[in-house]
Amino acid sequence: MRRLYLAAGLFFVGLGAIGAALPIIPTVPFLLLAVFCFARSNPAWEQRILDHPHWGPQVRDWRERGAISRQAKVMAIGSIATGVGFTWLTLGFPWVWISVAVLVVGGGWIATRPE
Asked: CA nearest 31: which of 12, 44, 50?
């Protein structure tokens, strides 16, 4: 079972790395999944993520308090809103309503998390 958790943790770190390079893919949710997997397979790698100077504080805040920083909230909701605009320009109606629903539900959930 440890090997499966280790493989999943590496997979999620890879997705997080892609998310760090591409603005449309989130990074921290994948790192949270990686930390979960590494906690069950390789605690040293879990600690490396938690100690990372850029990503570690965000992962620790979520893990300890379920908190998202104000800057991360603005970036996330702004990205979703940009997606709504892009969908409207490229696909138009009625497809834009799917993006609007994601903005309302996802953005609303993100906005209500503690800071």
From this structure: 12
Radius of gyration of the chain (CA): 16
User: Each residue of 70-93: pLDDT tens digit?
Assistant: 998 998 899 899 999 999 999 989
Are residues 47 and 75 located together in one domain of the fold?
no
Q: Do 42 and 83 belong to one domain? A: no
- Own/partner pairs, 66-72, CB within 8 angstroms, 24+ separation: 66/113, 66/114, 67/113, 67/114, 67/115, 68/110, 68/113, 68/114, 68/115, 69/115, 70/115, 72/28
* Spatial distance between the Cα atoms of 54 and 112, rounded to a whole number of angstroms: 23
26 — alpha (psi -120 to 50), left (phi > 0) or beta?
beta
